[in-house]
């Protein structure tokens, strides 16, 4: 069993028992009679009839196709189809809102402007003369910039916006982008009361601002200080 | 005796076979007829000679489109043989088994296993092969009887080389256990 075509490298593993078995198997195969040509094959071998055409696969010199390669091709094809569908729906703005935003954000990176990533209308002037700006009509209720109990230094972590709370840098980036806050339904910076306004309405607005400020930055303040401020607001006395 | 292959003559024989030259068909049949029949016998087909004829009719019918090396040609021939083995196994699994009538035992057409034993001429070898799962047995037969490399065996079976190595490893592990058991039984009184 040591002919040039026997692949001993990884077959026998230096195992004498397996080598002996392979030797016996080969000897048995060699000792068997060669197959006799039947009538049809005999005609072909004698040149009296052409061999019937074989429709099956025949190696044609290219790299043989293997199941793993076929699977990889199928996966790539599936991925391409999925990408095409998502892109088409994204361009049409027909994806669900969260997905649309993600797609638009990715497209924005490569310079494509898709619906869902449009910057919000320009922020109102910090000291406008008109009435306060109303939240953009997103169909969602306005959200406070930081939910109660949430660490204000971390990202918002909203599932919808894809900003992971574990990625504070990203969240900070989002918060600092004035064009994006309106897109997420947040209330733009309140310009405050108009110079012309005054009286009880202005006072209530100021109180609301103060309360929101307290809620927004509790970690930066001592508990006593916060309680004092709340007392001031509730009693109206310093 | 290991198959020395056709070597440098392969290219001219292949070229002649592609144009339908009968002498080239005959050379190819002489070269691979015996190992193909040996593989079919080892795989347990009922009519190894008839199936070997079918293999070569298909080879000669498709050789006009073949391009590749001698090893690739050999692998292709055994791929055709393997596909026919699979077809026969499927047919046999669908066929209802019939219990032999009284008095018929030992008189009728021998069972496939008996034919294999007679063909290989070595009951012990065939008994060892029978301990293997069909896909393990195919790998062992293609590696030993057909002299195919891991890659060519993988191409013939439509599997990845890693899968063939794994099947071969498991087959040899099974054979080792069996051979060890044989050894213990042989030395025991």
What does this protein look like?
Chain A is mostly helical. Helix content of chain A is 45%, strand content 0%. Chain B has helices at 9-18, 22-42, 48-62, 70-94, 112-120, 123-130, 134-144, 150-157, 161-187. Chains A and B meet through helix 1 and helix 2 of A and helix 2, helix 3, helix 4, helix 6 and helix 7 of B.
List the helices and strands and how they pair.
The complex is a heterodimer of chains A (238) and B (189).
Chain A: H1 16-31, H2 39-45, H3 67-92, H4 97-109, H5 168-176, H6 178-181, H7 199-216, H8 223-235
Chain B: H1 9-18, H2 22-42, H3 48-62, H4 70-94, H5 112-120, H6 123-130, H7 134-144, H8 150-157, H9 161-187
Helix pairs in contact in B: 1-2, 2-3, 2-4, 3-4, 4-8, 7-9, 8-9
Short description:
With 238 residues, chain A is mainly alpha-helical. Chain A has 8 helices and no strands.
Strand portion of chain A: under 5%
User: Taking Cα atoms only, what radius of gyration of chain B do you get, to the nearest Å?
Assistant: 18 Å
Structural class of chain B: mainly alpha
> What's the total number of strands of chain A?
0
By DSSP (H or I, 4+ residues per run), the number of helices of chain B equals 9
Tell me the major beta sheet of chain B.
none
Radius of gyration of chain A, Cα only, in angstroms?
38 Å
- Helix proportion of residues of chain A, in percent? 40-55%
Oligomeric form? heterodimer
Largest sheet of chain A: none
Order of helices and strands of chain B: HHHHHHHHH
Q: Which structural class best describes the helix and strand composition of chain A?
A: mainly alpha
Mean pLDDT of chain A: 65
Regions with little confidence, pLDDT below 50 for 5+ residues of chain A: 1-9, 144-197
Rounded mean pLDDT of chain B is 85
Order of helices and strands of chain A: HHHHHHHH
Shape of chain A: elongated
Q: How far apart are the termini of chain B? A: 36 Å
- Considering residues with a beta carbon less than 8 A from a beta carbon on another chain, report the largest interface and each chain's count: A-B, 50 and 75 residues
Helix content of chain B: over 70%
- Strand count of chain B: 0
